[in-house]
Amino acid sequence: MFHPLPLYIGLRYTRARRRNHFISFISATSMVGIALGIVALIVVLSVMNGFHKEIQQRILSMASHATLSDPYGSMAQWPEILAQVRTHPAVVGAAPFVEVQGMLVRGSSVSGALVRGIVPTDEDQVADLRREMVSGSVDELVEDAFRIVLGRDLAAYLGVGPGDKVTLVTPQVSATPVGIMPRLKRFTVSGIFAVGMSDYDRNAAFVHLRDGAKLLNLGDAVSGVRLKLVDMWEAPRLAREIAYDLGGAFRLVDWTQVHSNFFSALAMEKRMMSIILFLIVAVAAFNIVSTLVMVVTDKQSDIAVLRTLGVSPARVMTIFMVQGTAIGLIGTLVGMIAGVLLALNVEPVVGAIEGLFGIHFLDPNIYYISQLPSEVRLSDVLFVGGGAFLMSVLATLYPARRAAATQPAEALRYE
Hints:
This protein is of the alpha+beta class and 415 residues long.
């Protein structure tokens, strides 16, 4: 392909003004189609990356990178374990917790909830609950005060706000003169948080660690220890290292295991969307086939002359491959540049469109994420550009082989 003669002729055919303007139109359409397909694919993948990153941040603002627990029940020796894991170089924060599935009752409203007992100052090391508070303060969770912090949707369902009372019913039971009764305790709502994820806003509540331990009859024990690691993406490997250092006596679960189904679904969605949008690029790339077929038909006499001058069929084939590849390369480069520029500025562009037409694509009254986050990844850009260019090259093979098979005598018979 890079022999001087085929390269020169192929590039000359690409930039020459053709007698058949329809061929020029098809060539331009192919370039524009490839560019638009690449732009659409890069922007969509970047927006999906942004949404996935935003969702991950919201989940991990409340979930720990790893959770350490005793497989045989409660963890009584947690102060020693806490001190030990905090010395590990991969651990940047650790906090004890107790956890129970219970029911919150307010009048006739009843809702299930995951209630977690925490120490507010320790919890700051592993989660961002303090930052997510919309009313009240997490510091009001003090021992023996029996106060509770609710998710925004959970508080709205129960119809409560700071200062109101709710009753927590736990699965544990107590023996009373009238028989076996579930354990229940009245709590005062001291705050409301909002993460933007229904798993937390609708189903989570927080109390003080000691209050939760009393409800579960744990005494001085806890359910486990939550960890924050130096690199969340290395959580599986780091969790195994920490578990090994602890002698393998404890169960250590990282965030990729807890939310594996959710993040697998996001990854599958991205792959399927990539395949669907690549069809746009494929359609545009294979327009090159029709372009080159018409060029080969238009240049029959030129091909015949070249063959009579001694140009081999392989070099004739290369000439038209150079022409088709140039069309694909120009469309790919333009699409990559335009796609990256649009993906980096998608929020201002969407904002301008919303302002122009007076609409909201993501109404803040409905969606927790009211803007279009975008994260451009070099790997995505190179994958899209490389895939589009490869399809463009493949699209040149049939017309180029047809040109190489041209018989000079047949082509010049009617000239």
